[in-house]
Amino acid sequence: MIATYFTQVSYIIAAALFILSLKWLSHPGTARRGVRAGEIGMALAIAGTLVQSGIVSYQWILVGFVLGTAIGLPMAVWMPMTHVPQRTALSHAFGALAAGLVGTSEYYLHTTDLSTFTMAVLSLEVILGFLTFTGSLMAFGKLQDLVPSRPLVYKGQNAVNLSLFAVAVGTAVYLVMHPGRSELFPVVAGLSLLFGVLLIIPIGGADMPTVVSLLNSYAGLSAAAMGFALDNNLLIVAGALDGSSGFILSVIMCRAMNRSFSNVLFGGFGQVRVVAGEMEKRSVRSATAEEAAGILEAASSVVIVPGYGMAVAQAQHKVRELYDILTRRGTEVKFAIHPVAGRMPGHMNVLLAEADIPYDRLVEMEEVNPEFPQADVALVIGANDVTNPAARHDKTSPIFGMPILDVDKARTVMVIKRGMSPGFAGIDNELYYTDKTMMLFGDAKVFVGELVKELTGSHVRV
Ligand code: NAP
């Protein structure tokens, strides 16, 4: 009796904490609190479940706990921030596999006495769970370059995929009506596993973060279905939250790239990639740290545009030093945040927050774009696609229509990157060839460090 009471109370608190966690996670200032709330909610959910009398084997749970910790802890500690999309894909794969396996065991344990409703939710759980498992593994492979990241497309592919999915769903519907036909269950599971692979094959690596977020949504829905099958309210709530937030995030990412869902899922984006060597050879104007520091010294307003390269170089702390020096000199410094800069939503916010850059200096794209024409310098640090003016006017460009940061409108543009390599979309950037652009070649952390040194030196001289 006390155990049941404890479970109910801990589930209600956990559900409230999950909702608050999502709310807090949506702003950099409260994100840490959001993570804590989610962690406490999950701990309460686990504790509330473990005291239930239905638990038959604590030994097996302990084995799972040790195994999960042994895999999860090293992943959390050693996988760099830039690998978060593939890490997320792997966790979805494990979560979805768990949902699929629980559904499978529930089916075989209760084959003869399953109600139509339970069989329906079990089928949904198994289909979504297994297709998310293989789909997420494929997404992981593409992001990690273990399988070719280019889209693999062939004629009639969508028809083949949709027919296969229809057969899986049709078989599941038949099973719902005749749960005793257990020989059909492996067909549903097997087709779902195959569909997950086929779903991801035609999608290019450049769209994987969006797809991972969509798979997150499927995994959530699968967990919610599992909640109905196991009669567990918290699973229903958590699964629904996961399912809807993953879906909303995918929509946000699609909007930020000005792409539709169908374009991401069936578009074969990234198929026609311009290879760096084939790009028209045009000359660029490069400059040294000393020259760049001279211009920065004279600037009264600077907009810093961080991108994926800043994350790879882990340059955020050096960027903070640069920010400090410039603001101490009276220069107005802002950070322009593009919604899909980097490799995951909020990537830049996380990095800049880690370096304690004040949140009020971080300005969203719509707000900062009108300010570029008044900026003396736009300092682009390891960003590429999100600054490419082709997105505004070149209808043939794969990123045409993607909202960008209008850095080309600033008086002077400085771009820190190691060479002329393209960004995630694999295309050249016309920004680099304009008269007002100075290319500052080098690793972001090293080059920003040199700028700091130059500016500190001149500060002493002043
Ligand atoms: P980007 O277009 O991928 O460009 C990053 C640039 O950083 C590269 O051109 C690279 O050039 C440079 N770089 C790499 N390592 C560096 C280092 N150590 N030091 C200095 N520079 C370095 O990045 P972005 O402008 O941030 O754009 C993000 C892209 O990801 C967009 O295409 C977006 O659509 C895509 N995407 C993002 C999300 C998301 O949620 N954030 C989701 C889906 C897709 P060098 O090699 O020449 O140095």
Secondary structure blueprint with pairings:
Layout: H1 2-25, H2 31-50, H3 58-78, H4 84-109, H5 116-143, H6 157-177, H7 185-200, H8 208-230, H9 233-256, H10 261-266, H11 289-298, E1 301-306, H12 308-313, H13 316-328, E2 332-337, H14 347-354, E3 362-364, H15 365-368, E4 377-381, H16 390-393, E5 412-417, E6 437-441, H17 444-461
Parallel strand pairs: 1-2, 1-4, 2-3, 4-5, 5-6
Helix pairs in contact: 1-2, 1-9, 4-5, 4-8, 5-6, 5-7, 5-8, 6-7, 8-9, 11-17, 13-17
Bound molecules: NADP nicotinamide-adenine-dinucleotide phosphate (NAP).
Secondary-structure class: alpha/beta
Characterize the largest beta sheet: strand count, sense, and whether it forms a barrel: 6 strands, parallel
Bound ligands: NADP nicotinamide-adenine-dinucleotide phosphate
The amount of helix comes to: 55-70%
Q: What is the count of helical runs?
A: 17
For the termini, the CA-CA separation is: 76 Å
The percentage of residues in β strands lies in 5-15%
Mean pLDDT: 90
Strand arrangement, major sheet: 3-2-1-4-5-6
Low-confidence stretches: 272-278
What integer value in Å does the Rg equal? 25 Å
Count of discrete structural domains? 2
Q: How many E-type strands?
A: 6
- SSE ordering: HHHHHHHHHHHEHHEHEHEHEEH
Which term fits the overall shape? elongated
